[in-house]
């Protein structure tokens, strides 16, 4: 048995099949409470498993996803919130990370669809530098990078890559927001502008389509990113573990419909589709 924060956990009593059942429910978009109901396990047990596996998968990703021969990389930031929405944060918690808006920075290989890197944090320059430095550390060669128009990327990309990159930003211009209380779609897109920032990015490859499509995949796979539900993370640590589990499953276990293999296979990191049992075995 393991002791964590004065509480005795009994993770060793879960069989591999039971662990796989919990993780399968989780990566198919079920909330913690619904996963507990489906598997008959307590919330404490499920959260402990997600924490242990989240840490193991993050370590696994950091070790294995290196030396990538990617050619085109796309980056974006995925919004969610922890504890409560920004407008509802109690006064004594305002300004503390993990309360209100939380952003997940993502970088995807446009060819293999591999999620190269992710970072849960704030949408500011410090996290931008940390994120882009991690992306650069995982790449083997010069790439073409496309991001949205966030200004933080300008300094962060320069810090991480210097002149050894072809970097462009794609800015989408929207019309006036005429949303009603019952409308949740974004305003009408009126224009798309591209800006070459560093090097010589090929105009035909300046795109964020794949990383934006991956946002939908993530929202389908993880209840914590689903809009208009109460499945949001109550603690940012739990969100970090959930993100690590979701993206590792996406890279190694989920067969991409277009590729007909997993992103990890397409990127040459493995020769087969991983079963959930293999990811659960990372706990051993």
CATH class membership? Alpha Beta
State the distance separating the first and last CA atoms.
14 Å
Major beta sheet, specifics?
A: 6 strands, mixed
Q: For the record, what is the CATH homologous superfamily label?
A: Ribonuclease H-like superfamily/Ribonuclease H
The average pLDDT value, as a whole number, equals 88
What is the count of DSSP helices, taking H or I runs of 4+ residues? 9
Which features would summarize this protein structure in a list?
alpha/beta; 9 helices; Nucleotidyltransferase, domain 5; 37% helix; 284 residues; single chain; two-stranded antiparallel ribbon
Descriptive report:
This protein has 284 residues and is α/β, with parallel strands linked by helices. The protein has one domain (2-283): 2-Layer Sandwich (Nucleotidyltransferase, domain 5), CATH 3.30.420.10. It has nine helices and eight strands. Strands 5-4-3-6-7-8 form a six-stranded mixed sheet, with helices on both faces.
């Amino acid at each position: 048995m393991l002791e964590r924060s004065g509480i005795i956990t009994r993770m060793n009593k879960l069989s591999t099949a039971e662990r796989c059942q919990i993780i399968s429910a989780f990566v198919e978009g079920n909330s913690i409470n619904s996963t507990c109901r489906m598997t008959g396990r307590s919330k404490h047990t499920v959260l402990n498993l997600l924490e242990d596996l989240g840490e193991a998968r993050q370590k696994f990703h950091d070790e294995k996803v290196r030396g990538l021969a990617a050619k085109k990389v796309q980056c974006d930031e995925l919004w969610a919130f922890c504890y409560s929405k920004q407008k509802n944060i109690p006064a004594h918690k305002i300004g503390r990370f993990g309360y209100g808006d939380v952003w997940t920075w993502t970088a995807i290989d446009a060819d293999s669809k591999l999620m190269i890197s992710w970072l849960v944090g704030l949408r500011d320059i410090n996290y931008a530098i940390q994120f882009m430095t991690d992306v650069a550390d995982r790449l083997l060669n010069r790439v073409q990078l496309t991001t949205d128009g966030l200004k933080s990327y300008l300094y962060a990309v320069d810090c991480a890559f210097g002149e050894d990159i072809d970097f462009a930003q794609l800015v989408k211009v929207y019309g006036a927001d005429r949303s009603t209380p019952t409308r949740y779609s974004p305003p009408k897109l009126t224009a798309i502008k591209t800006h070459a920032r560093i090097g010589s990015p090929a105009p035909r490859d300046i795109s964020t389509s794949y990383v934006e499509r991956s946002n939908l995949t993530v929202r389908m796979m993880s209840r914590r990113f689903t809009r208009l539900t109460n499945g949001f993370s109550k603690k940012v640590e739990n969100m970090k573990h959930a993100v690590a589990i979701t993206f590792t499953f996406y890279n190694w276990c989920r067969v991409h419909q277009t590729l007909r293999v997993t992103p990890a296979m397409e990127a040459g990191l493995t020769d087969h589709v991983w079963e959930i049992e293999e990811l659960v075995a990372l706990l051993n």
